[in-house]
């Protein structure tokens, strides 16, 4: 699936997967390096068991970094600001209001076994999703990646 998105991120491809209570979860990511060209390969991992892939640009990542000095930053990239905002949240929704930018991201919290899919408020960055007949959630930046999955069956 990720190989079909190579044109979106020619600077590297990585993947991650683990078993979970509902079967398993996996991310694939193709990277276009813009900020922190060397040190921000994705998926990004936190010390608290969160995993993030993001397509986008976080305009206020420096402000989030400045206000989260106790966060154990691993990169100089803008995407890690999403992990910091999520992990310093006071409730389940307001943390997204801290983020200014354009994005489509998937964040897996291994402690709660919750997946968060989010797009920027204007929908500039694409994030498409579908369920297969057996209930598997597929998501990506383009529908052609979803269509490549062996369990995907197109329906009207």
UniProtKB/TrEMBL annotation:
Note the SUPFAM superfamilies from the entry. N-terminal nucleophile aminohydrolases (Ntn hydrolases) (SSF56235)
Query: PROSITE patterns of this UniProt entry?
Result: GATASE_TYPE_2
Question: GO CC annotation: what is one?
Answer: cytosol
Q: CDD domains of this UniProt entry?
A: AsnB (cd00712)
Q: List, alphabetically, the InterPro entries matched.
A: ASN_synthetase/amidase (IPR051786), AsnB_N (IPR033738), GATase_2_dom (IPR017932), Ntn_hydrolases_N (IPR029055)
What is a single Pfam family found in this protein's UniProt entry?
GATase_7
Boundaries of every Glutamine amidotransferase type-2 domain copy: 1-156
Report the protein name in the record.
Glutamine amidotransferase type-2 domain-containing protein
Organism ancestry: unclassified sequences, metagenomes, ecological metagenomes
